[in-house]
Amino acid sequence: MSDLRSTERPVLTRARIGVLMGGQSAEREVSLRTGAAVYRSLVRRGYDAVAIDVGPTLFQDLCEQKIAVAFLSLHGPGGEDGAIQGFLETLGIPYTGSSVHASAIGMHKVTTKTLLAVAHIPVPAGTVVKRGEKVASASLLRKAKLRWPVVVKPASQGSTIGVTIVRKPSQWRGALALAHRYDTDALVEAYIPGHEVTVSIIGRRDAAPLVLPAVEIVAPGGFYDFAAKYEKGKTQYLCPAPLSAAVTKQIRTLALRTYEVLGCEGAARVDFRITPRGRPFVLEINTAPGMTETSLLPMAAAKATIEYDELTEWILESALARLDRSSGEGATL
């Protein structure tokens, strides 16, 4: 789509949009980058947008700036776990992305896996170790029917923060301590060898959700950690992912089912591990995917010929759809 056509497209709302970013989670810096990119995009398109670094004065900031719609660019606890969503609902401010309920479920990996397993969506076997619980690795693995290597991660974090691939008993206590630094629950699950692939989905106001092309992630050392995610040149991305037609169709179906089972709205990203034999497992869902220059959602959208500014507007539509439902009629902002 050309720049001229983008400029001529009418804006969806004349209301003032607050781009909420930053916050106090471990993903603050990533959130600031996402928010800055979204803010610039909205301004390019002619929207009345204001960038807001979320902190203790948020209520005052929203009131003083007369914010009518919130574009959520927050990551991590407090931003994508239902907390900010609930706060905005009490103020009657429509916001982008998933609801309080879906956000809270999606942020907590253990809850997500439980619901997906009930829906017969394949997830890695695993168990939970609570902070302060003294558990020997041998007994836990035996009880959970796991074997080395395993992945230890906080139950509620993103951007691979606090995650360790544990390959031997000597790494066990350090991995648990790291995960428990960020959450009271540490998820211990089977390590799935093979490919790391992600599928992004965009909910649409008057149509079925759009499943974007899959992206395969080839990280240095085989571990897609924080540095590999956000430092340019660290990781190779293959889009569309070089998978068989059958596996591609399967993960697209599983991604959409995951999105629907959890009740997601707006944009979301479903992460998979795919074994060398082509068997996929859902690792988690991200209900507030990044929108930085290296983020996977814009990359997949571009492959589907959706430019960044258009993608931003599609996400904005999720807030206006929320307004539609609350008012019982078309958005009037």
Description:
The chain has 333 residues and is α+β, with helices and mostly antiparallel strands. The protein has three domains: 17-96, 3-Layer(aba) Sandwich (Rossmann fold); 125-190, ATP-grasp fold, A domain (Dna Ligase, domain 1, 2-Layer Sandwich), CATH 3.30.1490.20; 193-313, 2-Layer Sandwich (D-amino Acid Aminotransferase, Chain A, domain 1). It contains twelve helices and 13 strands. The strands form three sheets. Strands 8, 9, 10, 11, 12 and 13 form a six-stranded antiparallel beta sheet that branches. Strands 4-7-5-6 form a four-stranded antiparallel beta sheet. The protein has a three-stranded parallel beta sheet with strand order 2-1-3, sandwiched between helices. Helix 2 packs across helix 12 (308-327). It starts with a helix and ends in a 6-residue tail after the last helix. Mean pLDDT is 91; it is low at 1-7.
